[in-house]
Design brief:
Order of helices and strands: HEHEHHEHEHEEHEE
Helix content: 25-40%
Number of helices: 7
Number of domains: 2
CATH class of the largest domain: Alpha Beta
Shape: globular
Strand order of the largest sheet: 3-4-5-6
CATH topology of the largest domain: Rossmann fold
Radius of gyration: 17 Å
């Protein structure tokens, strides 16, 4: 929202959706002038109905890209059907390390510290029907100093997320990154020359 407002991100924000009624993103969406939806099994009377409501919102909005940020559930199959190879996510570790079911939020950083890792980072990736297994778009690293607390690691990773996630969204908006029609998880999008500006990390 901030990058759209500044003119750096040539995109429109159709809506923000959360299954958490206390999500700050919902309040920020309202202040931004976008629609905000609280959708959960509780609000809709069951997970199947929540999935159907999500699909209804996505379909009526006619969006080009669904951008996840802190959504910790699997995206419903019905939503995938509406947005094949057009759902993006960010993960606070260097996938495939510290990814999959159970690795989210602070749990990721706690595991990184417990393992004694010398570095961690963030991964921007496409979404499929398995946790954290979609095509990797971009990774960046953050050093982990000896004795670091998980909270400090989280703060360093969050800086990377804020620095790069919007740039990947912009690449979709400008057509630099293009969704494909492939069913293969590793070929969800064509990166073109996108990575020329972001060389792989060592």
């Amino acid at each position: 929202m901030d990058r759209v407002r500044s003119g750096e991100l040539p995109a429109d924000l159709a809506f923000v959706l959360s299954n958490n009624s206390k999500s700050g993103a919902l309040a920020k969406a309202g202040a931004f002038g976008s629609q905000a939806f609280h959708v959960s099994g509780f609000t809709e009377g069951g997970e199947d109905k929540a999935a159907a409501r999500m699909a209804e919102i996505v379909k009526s909005s006619a969006i080009d890209l669904l951008v996840l940020a802190g959504y910790m559930k699997l995206v419903p199959v019905a939503v995938h059907a509406l947005l094949p190879n057009r759902i993006l996510n960010i993960h606070p570790a260097l996938l495939p390390a510290f990814g999959g079911a159970g690795f989210y939020g602070s749990k990721v950083h706690e595991a990184v510290v417990a393992r004694g890792c010398q570095f961690t980072g963030m991964t921007i990736h496409m979404v499929n029907q398995a946790y954290d297994e979609g095509q990797i778009i971009l990774q960046r690293i953050a050093p982990v100093a000896p004795g670091s607390l998980p909270e400090a690691v989280a703060a360093d990773v969050l800086k990377l997320e804020h620095a790069y996630y919007w740039q990947v969204v912009r690449a979709f908006a400008t057509g630099e990154i293009k969704p494909t029609s492939s069913d293969e998880p590793g070929h969800a999008v064509d990166l073109g020359r996108f990575l020329d500006r972001f060389p792989p990390v060592d």
